[in-house]
Amino acid sequence: MKLEIDLVPSTAWYSNLRKKVSQKDWDKIRKQSYADANHKCAICGAEGRLNCHENWEYNDKNHIQKLKGFIVLCNDCHMIKHIGFAGIQASKGLLDMDKLIEHFMKVNEVDIKVFETHYNQSFDQFTERSKHPWETELSKWAGLITPH
What is the pTM for the complete model shown? Predict the structure, then answer.
């Protein structure tokens, strides 16, 4: 699938680069990512409002989350990645969950059953990963962090 749900374990929430670097450094990363993606969503090709999404790899044995890089996403693809947050927004009437699910199905050329299976598997994995503390490895971007 081109578009997948990508839930961060609750025990690793806010352990991201964006929260640890200066706004100036984040803007450099974000703008370079947009330029590298030709100012289009890397998954569906949409133009317009874009988001720079951190791409993480998880070592489930050693509980290490490693920053692999960045991907440029439109709002719909970004909300699919953060579908737990999207669900909260939808419950407040701030987001149309049916529209997001339709986007997922269209991008991946799948039906609702495939979405539901992927959704359930993603939350099962989230629940299991959230049982453990995670070490964050920022790789080549660690040098951007300045001590406070």
Answer: 0.90
